[in-house]
Structures are given as structure tokens and as C-alpha cells.
């Protein structure tokens, strides 16, 4: 029998539709588990490092949308590979210098266990810091959306809110949303799946028909 060469396995990065990887971690609000958020939506996001300028602006921006997230039944949880004491000092510094009180918990992931499970470490960017990742996890703890940003680019909070509104609207009405959609705008009517239904669609009332495969309606 010939010798087989084995290579170290690489952790599988989670994908949209996967069950969110379980974790238990120390945070600025005590020890938290993924299970603690069951029944609510969760935005889990990572940042490269405490006491850095882009991350500081992002934390202030996340705090600004936090009340809007809570209105939508969404909790917010930050993460970096810094220590708990660094997190505590940083959020206190933000409040002292800017008047913005950070109300959401932040995971201290020194051993990178959570960051590795969620694919937040990109070796070509840094082997010791997490990139700017955003995971939208629904109330059944399924990953519904993933956004990655490079370390040099701060995130757009309006897009995160818009994305959650889109996902929750689709869940409620069973309808996808078009480009640049925002609440109050028309949604997409799912296209017909047979030639007979396509013909019927062209005669359907109460919707805006561009063609048989592209129709919109209000919800």
C-alpha cells in the first residue's frame, strides 16, 4: 500500500442558509452563547482592533442604528481578537471622548475561536486580526446574509438596515425585493413557473406588469 500524503484541513466557512456556528464567549456583558439569541434576529460583526480610528467610527455608527435594529427584533453583537479589558477600556473611552455610550456587547475573542468558526480571519489581510465581517442571523439561527469589507473601508449602516428590512419583508410576504428597495416601495412578484401561468400573468390585475417574468406589487 502506498503512503498517502495528508494536509491539514481548513475550517469550512459558513454559508448563507447554514445553521450559524454555535459559540460560547466572554463579552463586555458577561458570558454569552449563540443560543441566548434564539427567537431574535442577530447581527454579528467583527472589527480588526480596538482603539483604531475606522473601528471607532463604526462602533459609534452601529450604536446609532442599534435602536432601529431593536425595533426590528434584531440584537447586535461585536467581536474582535482583543482582550476583555481592552474592550472595556475602549468603549469607556468612546463614551468619554464622544458622548456615545456603546450599549451592545462585544466578544473578546483572544483565541480566535469564534472568528475562525465564522471565517472572519483572512490571512492575506491579517493572521492576527479579523476583517470587517457582518453576519445576519435570523430568529431560527440560520445565516441569512454575509457581508465582508476590507480593513480599509468602514461599513454602511443604512445598507445593513435595508438588508434586514428586505429579508424580513421577504419572510413575511414571500416576495423578493428589487435593487435599491426600501420599505414602502414595490416588491417583486415571484415569476410564473409554467408557460400557462406566464400567459395568465400577462392578464393579472392589481400588479404592475413589465413582462411575464418581471412584475411588481405593493405590500
UniProtKB/TrEMBL annotation:
Cellular localization per UniProt: Cytoplasm
Gene Ontology CC terms: cytosol
GO molecular function: thioredoxin peroxidase activity
Annotated binding of substrate, by residue: 132
Matching CDD domains: PRX_1cys (cd03016)
EC number: 1.11.1.24
Start-end of Polar residues biased regions: 1-12
Keyword GTP-binding in record: no
Catalysed reactions, as listed in the record: a hydroperoxide + [thioredoxin]-dithiol = an alcohol + [thioredoxin]-disulfide + H2O
UniProt record similarity statement: Belongs to the peroxiredoxin family. Prx6 subfamily.
PANTHER family cross-referenced by the UniProt entry: THIOREDOXIN PEROXIDASE (PTHR10681), THIOREDOXIN-DEPENDENT PEROXIDE REDUCTASE, MITOCHONDRIAL (PTHR10681:SF128)
Name of this chain's protein: Peroxiredoxin
Organism: Candidatus Carbonibacillus altaicus
Lineage: Bacteria, Bacillati, Bacillota, Bacilli, Bacillales
Amino acid at each position: 500500500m502506498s503512503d498517502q500524503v495528508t494536509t491539514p484541513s481548513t475550517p469550512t466557512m459558513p454559508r448563507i442558509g447554514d445553521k450559524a456556528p454555535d459559540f460560547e464567549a466572554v463579552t463586555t456583558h458577561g458570558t454569552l452563547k449563540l443560543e441566548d439569541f434564539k427567537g431574535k434576529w442577530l447581527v454579528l460583526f467583527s472589527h480588526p482592533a480596538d482603539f483604531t480610528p475606522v473601528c471607532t467610527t463604526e462602533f459609534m455608527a452601529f450604536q446609532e442604528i442599534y435602536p432601529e435594529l431593536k425595533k426590528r427584533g434584531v440584537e447586535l453583537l461585536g467581536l474582535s481578537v482583543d482582550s476583555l479589558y481592552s474592550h472595556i477600556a475602549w468603549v469607556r473611552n468612546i463614551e468619554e471622548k464622544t458622548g456615545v455610550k456603546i450599549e451592545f456587547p462585544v466578544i473578546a475573542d483572544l483565541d480566535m475561536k469564534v472568528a475562525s468558526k465564522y471565517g472572519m480571519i483572512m490571512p492575506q489581510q491579517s493572521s492576527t486580526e479579523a476583517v470587517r465581517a457582518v453576519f445576519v442571523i435570523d430568529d431560527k439561527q440560520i445565516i441569512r446574509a454575509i457581508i465582508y469589507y476590507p480593513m480599509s473601508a468602514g461599513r454602511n449602516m443604512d445598507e445593513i438596515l435595508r438588508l434586514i428590512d428586505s429579508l424580513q419583508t421577504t419572510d413575511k410576504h414571500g416576495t423578493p425585493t428589487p435593487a435599491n428597495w426600501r420599505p414602502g416601495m414595490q416588491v417583486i412578484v415571484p415569476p410564473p413557473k409554467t408557460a400557462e401561468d406566464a400567459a395568465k400573468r400577462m392578464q393579472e390585475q392589481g400588479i404592475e406588469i413589465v413582462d411575464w417574468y418581471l412584475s411588481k406589487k405593493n405590500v
